[in-house]
Amino acid sequence: MMMPSIFGENLLNDWMDFSFPDIDKKLYGKRAAHIMKTDVKEKDNGYEVAIDLPGFKKDEVKAELKDGYLTISAAKGLDKDEKDKDGKYICRERYSGDMSRSFYVGKNVTEEDIHAKFENGILMLDIPKKEAKKEEKKYVTIEG
Question: In this predicted structure, what is the pLDDT of residue 2?
Answer without folding.
Answer: 44
